[in-house]
Amino acid sequence: MTKQKEVKPLKLMVTIIDRGKGKKLMSYYKSQNINYSLLCFGKGTASSDVLDYLGLDESEKDVFISVVYAESIPKIFTQLKEKMELHKAGQGIVFTIPLDSIGGMASFYALTGGREEQ
Predict the structure, then answer these.
(1) Cα–Cα distance between 111 and 105 in angstroms, integer?
(2) In the predicted model, is pLDDT for residue 17 greater than 90?
(3) I want to staple 67 with a disulfide (CB 3.0 to 4.6 A). Which of 76, 84, 94, 111 is the partner?
(4) Within a 13 Å sphere around the CA of 73, how many CA atoms are in the beta-carbon half?
(5) In this structure, are residues 11 and 74 in contact, taking their beta carbons and an 8 Å threshold?
(6) pLDDT at 96
(7) Are 1 and 9 in contact (CB under 8 A)?
(8) 77 contact partners, CB below 8 Å, separation of at least 6
């Protein structure tokens, strides 16, 4: 009988920031060993009146979709406040979605950087 490994819970983290700030965010994510990030370009559809009211400058956004260990989320959120100033209005938003299932250990390893947990 083979010994089954326990894996740490993962979350899907979505970060939305103004277009052009993505290089700084990607550099931070690499420093935190966030190995799987997908960058998408977003464009808001709100009118300029709504953007002005909400204090938002741009409707074009960089959207990062990343896979992170759930236990790392508090540290990452704290550092994002400092490095990207996400605690200030109009600077961006970050949120997570729990991942309850992943199709096999090969997928798990691919999402966590291709290596087993330490």
Answers:
(1) 10
(2) no
(3) 111
(4) 19
(5) no
(6) 94
(7) no
(8) 94
